[in-house]
Prior knowledge:
Blueprint: E1 2-5, E2 8-13, E3 25-29, H1 40-47, E4 52-56, H2 72-85, E5 91-96, H3 98-109, E6 114-120, H4 130-137, H5 142-151, H6 168-177, H7 181-194, H8 198-203, E7 209-214, H9 222-230, E8 236-240, H10 247-250, H11 252-266
Parallel strand pairs: 3-4, 3-5, 5-6, 6-7, 7-8
Antiparallel strand pairs: 1-2, 2-4
Amino acid sequence: xxxxxxxxxxxxxxxxxxxxxxxxxxxxxxxxxxxxxxxxxxxxxxxxxxxxxxxxxxxxxxxxxxxxxxxxxxxxxxxxxxxxxxxxxxxxxxxxxxxxxxxxxxxxxxxxxxxxxxxxxxxxxxxxxxxxxxxxxxxxxxxxxxxxxxxxxxxxxxxxxxxxxxxxxxxxxxxxxxxxxxxxxxxxxxxxxxxxxxxxxxxxxxxxxxxxxxxxxxxxxxxxxxxxxxxxxxxxxxxxxxxxxxxxxxxxxxxxxxxxxxxxxxxxxxx
Length: 271
């Protein structure tokens, strides 16, 4: 599905069903340098079970028009603009990694628009390794290799994703093929490194929130995910064993099961 946000073309996957304003909306927000394809399994389930879903490509990513937005605060406002642009009043947000920071920022800025919040591999801050940041900003494909190796836990390196092709080598290759290492990954890493408002934003969140954490996460370590949860009033925590940072791919089935229970409770559909 293509639509306009602030006069720029945006692409979002609707999970294989037409977008329907009469159904509750879930927006899936991807991580640094990635795109809507990381959410294939999750979006398809909800699209066929009573929800309208938008797995968005952030500006400058996937099929969305650029340039990439340079700050987390601006990206949070952009999610609010997405809700307005599709004619909806509210949405549940599901974020991964940088997508968590964006979702936190949106929920703190626009509390009346966010019905519930699910954060995968989140933290209140995501400071970047200087070497990795330099490689990404210089457009070096090595940045993708390092990110994907570091992001996946041991099981993630062996494939086996329910959706063929969505294991870490193919996923990283899609970033290189799109030519977006510098213009998306580099910008994203810099935005994460610059963002200092995560814990203050978290304290302002009013909606039901769940933190889905990988026990072996090396990019946003478990202790950092717990620290974020402590700053969000009444938030829940689910920890997935033997799982790294790419929770939505490494343990796609478990992640979906947790999302089903949480979203159906806090943002129910008639179906």
